[in-house]
Amino acid sequence: NRSESSVNLRNWSLKHASSTIYQITDSTIAIASKSFAVVTASENTGYEIPSGIPVIVPGSFPALTNSADSIIIIDAAGQRIDALRYVSAWGVQTGKSLERIDPNEKSSDRSNWKQSKDVLNATPGSPNSVLVQEFDAALDSVFIPKNEHPVVIGKPVQISVAVRNAGLQTIDSMNIEIQIFNEFSILDTIIPISRALAPGENQTEFLSFQPKKGGVFLLLAVVLLKSDGDSSNDSATCSLPIGYPTQSVVINEIMYSPISGGSEWFEILNRSLFPIDLNRWQFRDGGGKWLLLCDSSQMIEPSGFFIVAAKVDFLNDNPDFSGNILFPVVFPNLNNTSDS
């Protein structure tokens, strides 16, 4: 009930896509101002309806079609009060309701409906979990633009952050916190936005950043607004691999023709002055597919070595070996006459 006074539902009715009209109730049942009533086919809704919210079970309730259907509400005078035509393309997930975002926008507007994000998958008798807030700053995206790639130590790049006023009121100012981290933090800073954003307006900010450490990091952006009414859309993330200068790591030794039954392998050396994380590095032989070296953090220290071996037989062939070693899931067969 959006109105400023209670509404009596006696002799109200509903219908769906068919011509049949179903009486909601012939009793005096009132919906308080700015409150709710739940009309259901069964008293056993599976939800805990808040105290004081009317739960109405009509004598007959239409079977709503999952692919597409309509719901029309008619008052005691025969006046159509509201109507909704939905289709499955709006979002179908068994056991999850569709919720209206803004009671003041059109019922027929697909963009005014979303699947419930409540932990119980619906909110009968309570405010919708997707309800538009008076103040709501949304952080839509954070990423490194394609023309800035690859991201490499020492090369300045621009971080793009898009924010939007998803609320009903103008936001005069806000802040955006930017963090880049894995087990270590390499950036934590604030971008102030002092320009007012009208409802529905968006703004993109750019932050210059010069990486000083390589590896695979998480780029996180969080919008900070004290009056924010919805925290679920306040942040965005993306993976940020930061590369190393060319030939900071070199192939230092190779065994492409081992003794019978032995393992092929190659050795890499860190020539740089800083530790290097091999996480998500790739390798290949001549004309072969790119293969994953490892999928977890493996640090190679300055002047340090790693062996990359095809088989654990390497350890049998080199019983005194005590250094760092990787066994990729897939290792190419190296050609003895010529290869890469």
Please describe what this structure looks like.
The protein is 1% helix and 36% strand. The termini are far apart. It is mainly beta. The strands form nine sheets. The chain has a four-stranded antiparallel β-sheet, with no helix packed on it.
Short key terms for the protein model shown above:
single chain, mainly beta, 4-stranded antiparallel sheet, 1 helix, 25 strands, 36% strand
End-to-end distance: 73 Å
Biggest sheet: strand arrangement:
3-2-7-8
The average pLDDT score comes to 94
Number of helices: 1
Largest sheet: 4 strands, antiparallel
Shape: elongated
Helix share bin:
under 10%
Instruction: Please write the string of helix (H) and strand (E) elements.
Output: EEEEEEEEEEEEEEEEEEEEEEEEHE
Number of strands: 25
β content, as a range? 35-45%
Uncertain stretches of 5 or more adjacent residues: none
Indicate the radius of gyration in whole angstroms.
31 Å
Which structural class do the helices and strands define?
mainly beta
